TrEMBL record, chain A:
The keyword Oxidoreductase applies. Belongs to the short-chain dehydrogenases/reductases (SDR) family. Homotetramer. Its EC number is 1.1.1.100. The lineage of its organism: Bacteria, Pseudomonadati, Pseudomonadota, Alphaproteobacteria, Maricaulales. CDD domains: BKR_SDR_c. It comes from the Bacteria. Residues 7-189 form the Ketoreductase domain. It comes from Litorimonas cladophorae. It catalyses: a (3R)-hydroxyacyl-[ACP] + NADP(+) = a 3-oxoacyl-[ACP] + NADPH + H(+). PROSITE patterns: ADH_SHORT. This is 3-oxoacyl-[acyl-carrier-protein] reductase. Catalyzes the NADPH-dependent reduction of beta-ketoacyl-ACP substrates to beta-hydroxyacyl-ACP products, the first reductive step in the elongation cycle of fatty acid biosynthesis. NADP(+) binds at T38, N88, Y153, A154, A155, S156, K157, I186. InterPro entries: 3oxo_ACP_reduc, KR_dom, NAD(P)-bd_dom_sf, Sc_DH/Rdtase_CS, SDR, SDR_fam.
From TrEMBL, chain B:
SUPFAM superfamilies: ACP-like (SSF47336). Pathway: Glycolipid biosynthesis; KDO(2)-lipid A biosynthesis; Lipid metabolism; fatty acid biosynthesis. The modification O-(pantetheine 4'-phosphoryl)serine is found at S37. It comes from Litorimonas cladophorae. This is Acyl carrier protein.
Amino acid sequence: MFDLTGKRALVTGATGGLGGEIARLLHKQGAHVALSGTRAEKLEGLAAELGERVAVTPCNLSDGEAVDALPAQAAEALGGPLDILVANAGITRDGLLMRMKQADFDDVIRINLESYFRLTKACLRPMMKARSGRIIGITSIVGVTGNPGQTNYAASKAGMIGFSKSLAQEVASRGITVNCIAPGFIRSPMTDALNDAQKEATLSRIPAAKLGEGADIAAGALYLASDEAAYVTGQTLHINGGMAMI
Amino acid sequence: MSDVLERVKKMVVEHLDAEEAKVTNNAHFIDDLGADSLDTVELVMAFEEEFDIEIPDDAAEHIQTVGDAVKFISEKVG
């Protein structure tokens, strides 16, 4: 089950906690993995940890042309066309809408949503030819529930979900699936920095009474990337400890 | 021209799994040969590769029959 031997995957945002965990798990299951992100040093560190079957393809997702070229670069570095795309990179520029600058909105939409459009488009051609492919967008619970201070981020994440559902319908007959994962609160340096009162307030909203781990999200990504999930498309997999049941 | 026609016909037969006899000059990919919209996109992509040409989106929209494809490709490859 969930064997990815011989598959080629591109993971963006692999410098982050979630992306790193996803890359590790896909690799562990046999995939060849291209790691993308902005910090080349950190990518090299992860590549060294993984050893074989790995490539480092840094990319600045705010540079549209660079994003367009990334899947082909990753495919070349891995020695063949991509079977799996995990679009995990994203940024936040939080603030109440009353105070939000245009640039904060534009940056978030460009890096979170437009790069998803560019990456998937660039991946489709070889996947169409192969009559198979797995596109996985890492969105967020707030794309579905909303969150004050994150109008821009929530819009970009909700946009990914609508985009994925539409594309899923376009390419389902070609054996390509397009799904999203919507993490809830996942432990990260950011959540570690919360004070006790903030932590308590957060946990009180989670029936599982604990934060999620990167590995919880990676497990979902592995499932959606696997042959076993061939009949799952256009879905959003919520991994959130019961924080929202949708 | 006839070479292009033969190659295009062969590709259409293969890609759309169509009966060779039905793949005539006037055959419409969608109405006559059972293609869906995605098939036509794929066909155009295949033509681009086979003949090493670029088919812009606005031109691709007008390639709806075997004859359309042959005409466009013949003009491109000269």
